[in-house]
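Section 3.1: Structural characterization of target chains.
Under the original work plan, the team committed to producing a structural model for every single-chain target entering the pipeline before any wet-lab resources were allocated. The record below documents one such target. The sequence was received from the expression subgroup and is listed exactly as submitted; it comprises 192 residues.
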Amino acid sequence: MKHLARAGALLLLVAGGFMFMRFATSQASVPMIGLVRENNAVQWASLQPRLGTAAQCVKCHGDVDMQWSRSAHAGQSCEACHGAADRHMEFGAIASPANELCTTCHEKIPGRPDYFPQIERLDHYPLQACTTCHDPHSPAAAFPKIPHNVQGREDCLACHGVPGIANIPPNHANRPVELCLGCHRPKEGGSP
């Protein structure tokens, strides 16, 4: 009978030790991992916001908003591309979006609808930044500037469309060369 009493006492001691450790670690981990036992809604409401609305951006960037609000990207928040506004408001500088950001939405992948603008990254000017040709604030109305002098090279299709020299976007296939300079302009200070 003594052995049962010892086993029972040992079991109670182990269970008591387990309960003590569980209680002690849960009390320490609540503040450590950010959980709160107080009024959670009040705590969240008291935090300084990191993300803003486009209306906050328009206060200083009205010129960009005129393009953006009428573009295909109007449904996106400014912060979707530029990051949280709190750092911009605090430090002034803002990082420009990288090429990878454009392809987050526009890389051709199975499952995206055919009507959505998509590219094959390796076939669509892989060595140039997207913003070389496209204005993300006004993507539909952006007619890319020609990054080179075209004087004496008015036959755009002599190079563009020739495999290995310069690819031509699929939506430009079978267009006559006379249409090129109707949309694409030489760089500032360049001559057509």
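The beta strands are 145-146, 185-186.
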